[in-house]
């Protein structure tokens, strides 16, 4: 009977281990912006024809629901310079731009929904500067001491709340499994003593 008890202990420990991994894995599986074209905070010599955003997983596409995934490009005056014809292909969201954009800084604002239903939004800028194309651009300082720009901002309150909820869920699951194991071992011990 000693071998069966140690085998049950091993199985119970493995179950607790895998139960603890499940919430953490599903909570971290959200799409994040991996690359963009033009890149965030880049200086390009000519205005691109298309802005392309690539995420870490496929985006949700619902028939007739165009508002789920959106991207807008605006100039320094907050005037839209995209054509509003955004398209989703797997994990890539694209939108075409109006022709002959002037030199200046452009803001890309996006909101997407990953396949698991989690919304992600963010903002970044790129600059069009014809002098960069001609080789006459003034060299830029590598480190000017300014804070690093964020590709997108996360809501700290929501992030902390989600982490606490996940932690409490794991703790509650461990307590439930522990209580169940206690009663199971108690019942097994009572049976072995009766024999």
Commentary on this structure:
The chain has two domains: 2-27 and 160-194; 33-153, Immunoglobulin-like (Sandwich). The protein contains three helices and eight strands. The protein has helices at residues 2-27, 130-134, 156-194; strands at residues 33-37, 43-44, 50-55, 70-74, 87-89, 92-96, 104-113, 119-128. Residues 135-143 and 148-153 have low confidence and may be disordered.
Task: Fill in the keyword field for this structure.
single chain, 195 residues, alpha+beta, Immunoglobulin-like, 2 domains, 4-stranded antiparallel β-sheet, 4-stranded mixed β-sheet, 8 strands, 24% strand, rod-shaped
Average pLDDT number: 76
Strand content: 15-25%
Rounded Rg: 26 Å
Q: Kindly give the count of domains.
A: 2
The secondary structure category is: alpha+beta
Stretches where pLDDT is under 50 for at least 5 consecutive residues are: 135-143, 148-153
- Tell me the major beta sheet: 4 strands, antiparallel
Offer a concise description of the structure:
This protein has 195 residues and is an alpha+beta fold.
Question: Topology, pairings included?
Answer:
Layout: H1 2-27, E1 33-37, E2 43-44, E3 50-55, E4 70-74, E5 87-89, E6 92-96, E7 104-113, E8 119-128, H2 130-134, H3 156-194
Parallel strand pairs: 2-8
Antiparallel strand pairs: 1-3, 3-6, 4-7, 5-6, 7-8
Helix pairs in contact: 1-3
């Amino acid at each position: 009977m000693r071998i069966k008890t140690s085998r049950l202990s091993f199985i119970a420990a493995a179950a607790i281990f895998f139960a603890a991994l499940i919430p953490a894995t599903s909570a971290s599986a959200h799409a994040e912006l991996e690359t963009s074209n033009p890149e965030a905070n880049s200086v390009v010599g000519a205005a691109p024809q298309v802005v392309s955003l690539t995420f870490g997983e496929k985006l949700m596409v619902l028939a007739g629901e165009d508002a789920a995934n959106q991207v807008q490009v605006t100039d320094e005056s907050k005037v839209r310079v995209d054509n509003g014809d955004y398209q989703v292909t797997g994990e890539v969201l694209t939108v075409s731009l109006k022709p002959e954009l002037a030199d200046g800084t452009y803001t890309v604002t996006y909101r997407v929904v990953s396949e698991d239903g989690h919304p992600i939004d963010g903002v970044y800028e790129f600059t069009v500067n014809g002098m960069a194309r001609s080789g006459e651009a003034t060299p830029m300082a590598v480190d000017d001491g300014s804070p690093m720009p964020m590709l997108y901002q996360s809501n700290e309150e929501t992030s902390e709340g989600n982490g606490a909820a996940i932690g409490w869920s794991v703790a509650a699951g461990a307590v439930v499994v522990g209580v169940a194991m206690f009663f199971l071992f108690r019942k097994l011990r009572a049976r072995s003593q009766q024999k």
